Amino acid sequence: MSTVERPQVGEAPAPGHAWLVGAGPGDPELLTLKALRVIEAADVVLHDRLVSRQILALIPTGVLRLDVGKLGYGRSMFQDRINELLVGFAAAGHDVVRLKGGDPFVFGRGGEEALALAAAGIPFDIVPGVTAGVAVPEAAGIPVTHRGLARSVAFVTAESAEPADAGTERVHDWAALASIDTLVVFMAAARATATASSLLAAGRSPATPVAVLVDGTLSTMRTELTDLGSLAERGISVQVGRPCTLVIGEVVTLAPRIGAALSAASGSRVPRSARIAHADRPAGG
Ligand SMILES: C[S@@+](CC[C@H](N)C(=O)[O-])C[C@H]1O[C@@H](n2cnc3c(N)ncnc32)[C@H](O)[C@@H]1O
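Above: query sequence and S-adenosylmethionine SMILES. Below: predicted holo structure tokens.
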């Protein structure tokens, strides 16, 4: 592994390689084997604020680690700076991992980073991650589709929940979204009320079940069940910095049955057959 220095203007060594890597929703066991292998071999890891402490602990000592979430991730000028760092380190000959929460291409701006790498002629690969959009509801016992309850699902961001966003972001077609069985709403903490109001105005019933999921898949996970009418009236209170996802639709009614049946320690359990394979198998078997 090389000693890593920040890229200097004027240097033109053979470029390194870049990887856009999904870290999953938080539970380190949801990191893929490929993601782990790539992280262990990198010179530099540029990571998001949402990548969990347990996953950051897997980055070997000596690898340069930068929290680019501190740059104010989400605003376009900061995204430009992240792109510059990513391209800059790789152009200087380093192998760079861009480690992102969930999947890099689901509300992760991974596409923009891929375009920046392609434009700069840097060789790169994408390592998919387990998206919070599916894994977080699952951890609460909510399947995003379910026979008889939901045949369609949409993943949306709460970011463009208000008409005031027109002109800066594409505003959602709420009438179209109101007709989809399950809505999984990302980045929901600050805009939950506006999201619920927009759906009600578009004709969705106030009785529609809603799950508010915070810190999904982590030991601090919190699940609150409510309905769309109450959400529009009362909103939610989520501590700043904690990730929050909403699930809206009839599938939420399964949470008490499936969620309650899940082992509290399900994250660390493995099927009995796997335990036998690893622990009880006779030598040479
Ligand atoms: C910038 S988006 C990134 C999504 C990510 N690329 C993915 O595929 O999961 C961040 C949003 O993902 C959701 N999220 C990520 N991790 C979460 C978790 N552990 N629990 C609840 N929501 C989570 C939240 O809605 C959060 O605001």
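Residues 265-269, 272-285 have pLDDT under 50 and may be disordered.
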